[in-house]
Structures are given as C-alpha cells and as structure tokens.
User: Fold this.
Amino acid sequence: MGQERQESDGAARQVGFVFDGTHYRGRDNQPLAIALLAAGQRHLRDEPVRGEPRGAFCMMGICQDCVVIFEGRKVEACRLRIFEGLVAERAP
Ligand code: FES
Assistant:
C-alpha cells in the first residue's frame, strides 16, 4: 500500500488546504503540486528576474520551479505532502 492514508472504503480522505489565500481540497498526503494541478492551479511562483509565472516541471525536487513558501521557508511543492489546514504561499 502507498503512503496515502485510506478510509475503510478504499477512497483517499479529502483534506482542506490554502494556497495563496485560496481554499482547495485534495487527497490527504498528496504532493501539494499534484493537488494544485488537479485543481487547475499551475502558477506556483514567479520567476525572480522577469516575474514570469512558473509551475511544477520535474516533479522530483530538482528543477525548483514549484517552490512555495511554507512555514516561512521555501520548499518544493512536489515534495510537500498536504494535510488538513496546510497553508502555503506563492513564492516571489
Ligand atoms: S517540480 Fe521540479 S522541484 Fe518540484
């Protein structure tokens, strides 16, 4: 069995989280980048020089295009697992 916590009927539990002030729902323990993609949100940070929108690309913690702010630190959204009440912000 994978890392997702499952309810007795086999469906992954849904949790609520906030990204950049917007409330979303996703599957408990799902990577934040995946949960946001599933919700149609692809803009995770702004490229620092030109300010162009960036989003998840490699999905394995290498490209840094998915970096968001979580608990005051920059973290890769593809490696951050969501939970009920998670709050993250778009990185500048
Ligand atoms: S998508 Fe490349 S580091 Fe997250």
Notes: The chain has one domain: 14-90. Residues 14-90 form a domain with the Ubiquitin-like (UB roll) fold (CATH 3.10.20.440). The helical segments are 32-38.
